[in-house]
Design a protein that fits this description.
mainly beta, 10 helices, eight-stranded mixed β-sheet, Jelly Rolls, eight-stranded parallel beta barrel, 11% helix, 6 domains, 38% strand
Length: 1074
Amino acid sequence: MTNVAKAFPCLVCLWAFCAAAPADEPVATVVLADFEKGRDGFEASLVRDPAVAKNGQASGRIDADFTNAKAEPWKIVGAPLLYTNEIRAVRFWVRSHDAGGLTFRVIDSSGQVHQLRPKFQPNGEWQQVVLDSFEKGPGYQSWGGAKDRRFHWPARRLAIIFEKNNLPEGKVAGSLWIDQVELDLAGKPATVLDGCETVVLEDFEAPFKQRKMEDRLSGLAQDAKEFKGGAASGRFEGDFTREGGQPWRPAGRSLEVVREFRRIRFWVRSADVKAFTFILTDKTGQAHHQSVPIEPDGEWQQVAIDAFDTGPGYRHYGGANDGRFHWPAKGIGFVIGKGDAAGPVTRTLWIDDIEALAEPGPFVPDLEMEQDQLGNVFLTTETVRIPLVSKGDRIEWTVRDFWHRQVERGVAVVRDTRAVIEPQAGRKGYFEVRLVIRKGDLTLAETDTSFAVITPVDIATMKDSPFGVMTHFAQGWDLDIMPLIAKAGITSIRDEQYWQQIEKNKDEFVFTSKFTDWMAEAAKFHIDPLVPMTFANKNYDEGLTPHTPEGCKAYGRYGQELLKKYGRQIQWLEIWNEYNGTWCKGPAADDRPKYYAQMLKYSYEAIKEIRPDVQVLGGAAVLLPRPYFEGIFKHGGMKYMDGVVIHPYRAAPEGVEEEIRELKDLMRKYNDGKTKPIWVTETGTHDKTPHGRYNVARYLVRMYTLLLSEECEKIYWYLLRDYSSFKTMGLLRDPNDPMGRYAVAPPYPAYANLIRQLSGAKFVRREPTDPRTRVYRFDKGGEPVRVCWATVPAHFALAADAPLTVTDLMGQEQRLEPVEGKVYLTLTDNAVYVKGATKEILPAGGRFVLAAEQAADILGDVTLKFSVDNRGGAQALEGVFEAHGQKANIACPAGAAQDLSLTIPGEDTKTVDTREYAYRLTLNGKAAGLGQVTVHVVDPLTFSPDAKIDASRGMELRLGNASPRTAYEVESVSWKVADAPQTVQATAIQLPASKDLRFGLPLADLPDYRTAKVSASVKLKGRDAMLFSDEASCNPCYRRTVRADGDLGDWDHAPAIDLAADGEVWPPVAPAAA
């Protein structure tokens, strides 16, 4: 938010928030905006109007034009709120010929938005609005932040919104004036600026030539002839006379001030710049832009900026990219542009005395998460520690596991701004931590982080491991992530050495640190590189994909140079990447199999000439395209590859094994009945649903198991971490994620556990089961390991004489002991690993059956039903059925059956979601079974109109309750038709389970053949209001008998539709023709 004025303006706030002041508490009334000297802190979209005023000589005007149907249907003006007092009341005057209401928003200290919609008469007269409660009121809504519908002081920001629906039907533009804004503050007025210290960021006095580059505003020149203070200023010149040049000019410098700025102020002057862009970069590297309008009158003007993550024309990019400013600031910048000038122009802006009003002392955040271990990945031999820095006095924390079960909670006391959380979960796997930062009665912030616990592994001993991952170090990734690759047990990475960047000049090969550093770091951690030879080079074939013999020979030399540079570190080279996809350009795209086979031959021969031991991988295919592969094989490509590359991206893993078998059959057809190793150099998936990362973890284990069952040589997961648009594909989050640098994601421990279970294992067979159930047997060190899952939940019994160990997706082990020779599993898409000798895999046959109500209501309990069939048993069964901390006792005599019911309280059913509940079965003192069940949390309530309007001109609204178990209490119903005042009716009606309630929305006053906005709201106890909004019209059909007498008088008394007024002529015609 910016203020620009010749004299420094006063702070502007337009808001009030509730709570009656105690009788003995002083209340101070302050005038926050009278618009006498400027906009008083509002954004430039609010105009100071000297022609209209309630008091004094001016008011503030908001003009809105919604003619463009594609534009946003609202106009927002906002300002930062710097007062630290609670606001007891707000009074202001408003005037409009067009609008009948406003929307007010204020953001509290938790980031929660509180919104109200006060109304007034659009009669052009000044009317006073008085507001003294904003936790309730007309049209109240809240979202974000604490999400508790309570205001958390102090307020941070306000906004006044002129919406299209504030206008009467038919109007698309209007103006609104506000004036004389007064606030009643609790206690003596105080702002966040009180006690701030002035920090000089740049005064342009010290000569630039005596400074380091990072310590001066690059892009500006010092000017000793023009200055506001001191003896010099910074002159910012933009020369936009060159045709085709950039229409903007930047300037900036880094900052090393570890303080929180409450305001940045500086002086500017220009005769030709109407506005410029101010940029402040936060600690994550996120750049926050806003536009600053100024008067181009050649006079010095002071600019004050009080908010850095909002303002006119605000946008953000880079770093955390979340639209929030993360202190401290790391850089400051300015941009001037050509503006709206049509021809060549120059622009000049002088800047002087850049200062910040900063909080005293070093910046302490509401919460900053540090890391004891990078990514919060811990070994079982390490203590889980999450260090925190906070200005709060305590941090409440809750830990949930991969299955969303709460496993631990506690409170960490903050001492000298620091606290440490040490969860004692005592388990392996993935965990998320909810953090709530408190200070006294205030909630300062709420956020989440994650951690994982895995067992140690030494990849130096894992020779010929198939487990790899794709990285992008060649695209600039930081190398500090490398230890996390080794920690997971991943032995190989796939990354690039770009041909164009290595051979910029023909026959000159230069390997910069961009490429050599990541190779050296990988060697340090015993990680083997797979290098795909990518892509074209401008020195050959006009920069297109190699398609001539010369271009293909040059591509082969590039491969040779890679081997000469890195020697024995390179064992494999991959010829191109996804040649059948988007990476083939030019003539080669006309016949990809032909030209790929040609390039493959030249590169294969060149590589083998100097390193016969290097494996050359061919195919370069995305997906498994049979015609493409067959084309390469027909052109002799099989002869020039040691392995075949595929990228089997697909929605579900199941089925990939069939495609691979088809590819193997094709290889045998063109290779004398023999196959070649298959290299999966990319596979992965993304899922941006609320629990998408958990689904990615499930997908990874199933996909890898299927690929290993087809004996694929190497498998590289795409991607090591989130990157660019590849959100949720990473094993880890990106370095600037709000949860922490490389914060671990669920696929990482899932992959680490898979490696520990199957490293060194040899595939044996798929066990015979029904088609939807998968049981794959591997042998490892003489012991069978079975990977089991089902695409549809299935109950199974494993016949065994000795205990079996079942390891879940996250690595947590449980020992099951046979009862009457069997253990019992319920399989889902969460794969499990079963170790130990089993004689047979049998359907459970109804002996033990777990069932759940397929849906649970929001805020409702979850009911699990478990049946025990012991009618064929030789002995009584006694035990416990346990799920989510709840237990039900089993006592079933031989020859009998028993039905059990277990209720899980609805603490996990606050939102529409999918929940998974694990159970454990103990029989006769032995842990004999386990499994999971999926429950969908749904909202059983609907609020919608019935498609009918009855004879009394009333629309019927239906409030439906689909829940078979939960009744609700209706507290109030409100409705609004066209411009009529809102009607609110208090009720005390019960909405029974599986029943509907119907409400009549009266439309008697709605004119015929006119469309009007109608809305309704129903409030139920314990639930947010349910809203309905639409348009309605009454269009009666009149019955008349028409006589064929040439006279239309039969219709004289029927209302007519005025097409000229209500319709739109198309195509448009000239007035005369019309």
